[in-house]
Amino acid sequence: MGSLLSKTKSPKPTTTPESKPSNMSFTHFSNAQSSFKPPLIANENAYLGDIATSEPNDPTSPISAGFYRLEKGTPLVYEYTYHEMKIIVDGEFDISDESGQKVHAVKGDVFYFPKGSKITFTTETFGLGFFVGQRKEGAA
């Protein structure tokens, strides 16, 4: 996320037996939602890790994707330095911004966070989101 740096190894992607490794092959991250454990990035309860990036194929306008997990505890206030989309895949978040907008987010909710937005994430239990951000890998 924005000013927090995440250095983590991505899970090992797989390709289909018929495909040949190349920049144009798709990659598959089997069971990533439950098997990938993002590293701690802030406070005692905020975890984030990239699992995929388009950077090798498009270094000028890369997108990176991964998981963000927040446990009950300290709220995370984050200022986006890039555009991001997030879908809540498990648990719940309370998400608010500087304009006063507040949402109790649950599984299936989708968000767009524009570059420059300052977002506060909290949870009474835990929340897990899958994100795609317009940034280089590890630049969160």
Automatic annotation (TrEMBL):
Coiled coil: none annotated. Residues 1-22 have a biased composition (Low complexity). Pfam families: EutQ (PF06249). InterPro entries: EutQ, RmlC-like_jellyroll, RmlC_Cupin_sf. It comes from the Eukaryota. Residues 1-31 are annotated as: Disordered. This is RmlC-like cupin. It comes from Glarea lozoyensis (strain ATCC 20868 / MF5171).
